[in-house]
């Protein structure tokens, strides 16, 4: 994957794990020994993060040969070999946990995203992630969402205008907030406003919001909102959304559904690393 900060992130992660050195490996593994390791899925899921795993091994052994048998976004079955890496034994053993941590975490997010997108595949609504990500891992976690078939919302506070409840209070109202934002931001940026009821929805619509977020609205009210807006703005459902009510929300006709659970509640996919001496 193309992420300029990846090597620095991996360096910090390896330093966190190794400190001044991998005492066990340096004590029991000869320096000149080479090995081959296999990354094996222990559960069914969707793979994401192979490029990150490759980069982890490469930091400790630049000559390591990493071969993928799948690509990010592909389904994997329990017992399947995902990839193999051949290189210096010490490097492979010291990099193992960090590589697995990234690969398991990102594959877990991709797996959860894929499962949820399948629940609404018959509806036009797109499933979006949020900024509820692990600090320092946002780009990777959002990459995993995309690998699982989801779509990315804004990456941070810098690439999209989202006027939330506290912004509305600080600005003195929805109309004032939209007017001020429209005057300050480039015309290429869409303006999104969070609303909690149909009165606020009408205010946001009249103020010229491009996207209106329906925050914690019951599905019946969301359906009313879709009828009221009638295509004059895009609608995003957010808040309190789970697998159990996802399809019901998609049926209302909203354009987007954003779920923090795609990232903050994903369970890591179980993956093992089996080493064989050459």
3D architecture notes:
- This protein is α/β, with parallel strands linked by helices and 278 residues long.
- It folds into 2 domains: 6-111 and 266-277, Quinolinate phosphoribosyl transferase, N-terminal domain (Aldehyde Oxidoreductase, domain 3), CATH 3.90.1170.20; 118-264, Aldolase class I (TIM Barrel).
- Helices cover 44% and strands 20% of the residues.
- It contains 11 helices and 12 strands.
- The protein has a 6-stranded parallel β-sheet with strand order 6-11-10-9-8-7. It has a 4-stranded antiparallel β-sheet with strand order 3-5-1-12, covered by helices on one side.
- Strand 9 (211-215), helix 9 (219-229) and strand 10 (234-238) form a beta-alpha-beta unit.
- Helix 4 crosses helix 5 (138-147).
- The radius of gyration is 23 Å and the shape is elongated.
Q: Layout of helices and strands, plus pairs?
A:
Layout: H1 6-18, H2 23-28, E1 34-41, E2 45-46, H3 50-60, E3 65-68, E4 75-76, E5 81-88, H4 89-119, E6 126-128, H5 138-147, E7 161-163, H6 165-171, H7 174-184, E8 191-195, H8 198-207, E9 211-215, H9 219-229, E10 234-238, H10 243-250, E11 256-258, H11 261-264, E12 271-277
Parallel strand pairs: 6-11, 7-8, 8-9, 9-10, 10-11
Antiparallel strand pairs: 1-5, 1-12, 2-4, 3-5
Helix pairs in contact: 1-3, 1-4, 3-4, 4-5, 6-7, 7-8, 8-9
């Amino acid at each position: 994957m193309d992420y300029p900060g990846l090597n620095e992130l991996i360096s910090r992660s390896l330093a966190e794990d190794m400190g001044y050195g991998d005492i066990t490996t340096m004590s029991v593994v000869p320096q000149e020994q080479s090995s081959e390791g296999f990354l094996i899925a222990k559960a069914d899921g969707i793979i994401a993060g192979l490029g990150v795993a490759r980069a982890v091994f490469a930091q400790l052994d630049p000559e390591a040969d990493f071969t993928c048998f799948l690509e990010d976004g592909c389904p994997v079955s329990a017992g399947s070999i995902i990839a193999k890496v051949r290189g210096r034994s010490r490097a492979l053993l010291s990099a193992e946990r960090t590589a697995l941590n990234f690969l398991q975490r990102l594959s877990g997010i991709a797996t959860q995203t894929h499962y949820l997108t399948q629940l609404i595949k018959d509806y036009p609504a797109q499933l979006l992630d949020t900024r509820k990500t692990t600090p320092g891992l946002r780009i990777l976690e959002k990459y995993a969402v995309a690998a699982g078939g989801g779509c990315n919302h804004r990456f941070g506070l810098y690439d999209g205008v989202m006027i939330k409840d506290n912004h509305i209070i600080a600005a003195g109202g929805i109309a004032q907030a939209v007017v001020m934002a429209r005057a300050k931001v480039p015309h290429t940026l869409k303006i999104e406003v969070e609303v909690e009821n149909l009165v606020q929805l009408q205010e946001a619509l009249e103020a010229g919001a491009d996207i209106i977020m329906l925050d914690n609205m019951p599905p019946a009210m969301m359906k009313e909102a879709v009828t009221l807006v009638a295509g004059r703005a895009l609608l995003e459902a957010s808040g309190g959304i789970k697998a159990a009510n996802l399809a019901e929300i998609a049926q209302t006709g909203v354009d987007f559904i954003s779920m923090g659970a795609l990232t903050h509640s994903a369970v890591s996919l179980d993956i093992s690393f089996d080493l064989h001496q050459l």
